[in-house]
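Fold description:
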Amino acid sequence: MFMGEYLHIIDTKGRVIMPAKFREALGVRFIATKGLDHCLFIYPMTEWTALEQKLRTLPFTQPDVRAFVRFFFSGANECEADKQGRILLPANLREYAQLEKEIVLVGVSSRVEIWSQALWIEYSSQAENAYANAAESLVHLGI
């Protein structure tokens, strides 16, 4: 399980040092793709395979399903950490997530998210306001 928030710097070559706790759980190879809210999603291969299988069961005749699957898979890239624990993020993913220098890596249960620090601060402040309402909704769902 991934959890926690880590501030890092992305270097000029597009490399990010993955926190040791995250590297251990991600394994040797993992997948980086376009996430929601202009962040990147990083999945261990086991989670990626399970997600891929679930997405295959969706009805491809529906335009919103096709659009989501295209977007999600078109950005997917297999990654692995080098000896220093760095991963190279492709330019298209860095551009999508607006990653320039200061970034935040966030553990979110089954995945890691990589955010531009500026976007993370903006998102967090908005999400904080909705946090109590979301918690109340989850209670009504029995969680």
